Amino acid sequence: MSDDLVIRPIGKVESTLTDRADAPRQGDEGAPDAWLVFDESVREGLRDLRVGSEILLITWFDRARRDELLVHPRGDLARPETGVFSTRSPDRPNPLGLHRITILAIDGLRFQVRNLEALDGTPVVDLKPVLGDLTER
Amino acid sequence: MSDDLVIRPIGKVESTLTDRADAPRQGDEGAPDAWLVFDESVREGLRDLRVGSEILLITWFDRARRDELLVHPRGDLARPETGVFSTRSPDRPNPLGLHRITILAIDGLRFQVRNLEALDGTPVVDLKPVLGDLTER
């Protein structure tokens, strides 16, 4: 059964961000444009994504610590320790990143995106549409 | 390295929903109130969550198919097949569910929540705050 809970990455991030100390806290706080490079095996699943769309991206913070339950929000030691599930810290038991990004360009399996603070090489796990009103689903 | 991409569930869903055919398509389309039951090992990480808060929940759809790349949106055969990453289908390469829920009650490690369409027994993977304006982070 535990075999069912293994993430199989569908691609990876290409970014000029390589050091966690340099990464912005959130994508809309000065992240550079980056690329998502997908595996050939998921090509068909990507076919309805369009330039200009705003989507949700799930990544796996592969350089995070999984044993943290209390963190200082935004790494600011002046702020009191907070339960990790009330924060967006990458350090958490299952280090999934959730990013709201915009697709800037599509070149085959390469997608250029805006507002992604993930580091170069970060595994890409999933993409989902932002849910609109009931009538648009 | 692949060992790093193993999800370790932090709890599970308790719900009256047991059959996928009966589950609503999204949590705000008639899902019953449900409970999240967390593992003792993550108690400290939960301590700043409050009744009334709206949060994001990530689950693992353990009864989903991982080999689907094209689906009919909302299971409606009248709608054309769509690349899975443009849909919220549970059937997807990494079957993570993303749910926006409200905490109705907290009883130790048991949290009652509104708007959760996940089935009974679904593994709970992560909780994250909804991101507010820059000034509130």
TrEMBL record, chains A, B:
Residues 7-137 form the TsaA-like domain. CDD domains: UPF0066 (cd09281). It comes from the Bacteria. Belongs to the tRNA methyltransferase O family. Keywords: S-adenosyl-L-methionine. This is tRNA (N6-threonylcarbamoyladenosine(37)-N6)-methyltransferase TrmO. The keyword Plastid does not apply. Signal peptide: none annotated. InterPro entries: TrmO-like_N (IPR023370), UPF0066_cons_site (IPR023368), YaeB-like (IPR040372), YaeB-like_sf (IPR036413), YaeB_N_sf (IPR036414). The keyword S-adenosyl-L-methionine applies.
